[in-house]
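Our preliminary data section would be incomplete without showing what the modeling component actually yields. Below, a chain of 311 amino acids is followed by its predicted structure, encoded as tokens that our downstream tools consume directly.
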Amino acid sequence: MSKLSRLREEYRGSLKSGDTEEWFDLIFYRPIGFAWAVLARKMGIHPNVITVASIFIGIGAGVAFYYNNIWINILGMLLLIWANSYDSADGQLARMTGQYSRLGRILDGVSSDLWFVAIYVALCLRENETSTYFMSHHWKIWVLAAVAGLCHAQQAAMADIYRQFHLFFLKGKAGSELEDAQALWRQFHAMSWRRQFMPKLVMLFYANYTRSQERLTPQMQRLRKVLYEKYHSNIPKEFADRFRAGSRPLMKYTNILSFNVRSWALFISVLVLRMPWVYFVFEITVMNVILIYMICRHESLCVRLRKSIAG
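Predicted structure:
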């Protein structure tokens, strides 16, 4: 096998799956991320180091969006793209080298949250200084941003659990990062605050995060329970294929609720419209409509499949 063929094979292996990858990621971020991952592997860099680097770059992007200057804003856009290419690279490197860890998963989720916290704060400060309306109503932009931020967090969390549930049926437990809140809480209570303060604190937030995902997917949790009681870890391929057939069309909505569409809306609001508050409104309206639709569709799918098992 030639070197180019090996690289192509390795690139395909660095992807999550054909079912869950977004088209824009496949033509843009994944090839760039793979190049970063190959370089990092040669240099012996751990995936978590790339994740931490993306945090600083993403926060730098947020700072650049504070200025009401088109060229500095374009720099912010380029920095955010750079940060997201690192966000792609850390996962690809982990899959290429087998360096999976729960800490890596948590860091990966926290990194993009920190980018957008910086961006939200920068946009609020900018609007308070440049918008005639918000200069007279300082508190309104902060309330709008807070609501948008809460919606953003929930949208990303739901997209994550639906993607991981799909990967569970596609690749099994080893190929998915699907968690169980009860198991996480048991691990949390088994840890000592005195001897394991930071790991226990991280576990506290992660268990709460997982529990919030499960609360919004009651039918999914019932299906998981029925599947475990009947099949344990040996889910029949026919059932897994049926689930994937129903879940695959919904993956495009999980991708919409992830990074790309969100970043495009941000760039249009800041660079084209020059009205950053429009981005917050987009998060609260358009993205929430998609979220509600996705939840209803997925919960309905889980009900049908659970009834088919009972039948």
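The first helix runs from residue 3 to 13. The radius of gyration is 21 Å. Preliminary results of this kind motivate Aim 1 of the renewal.
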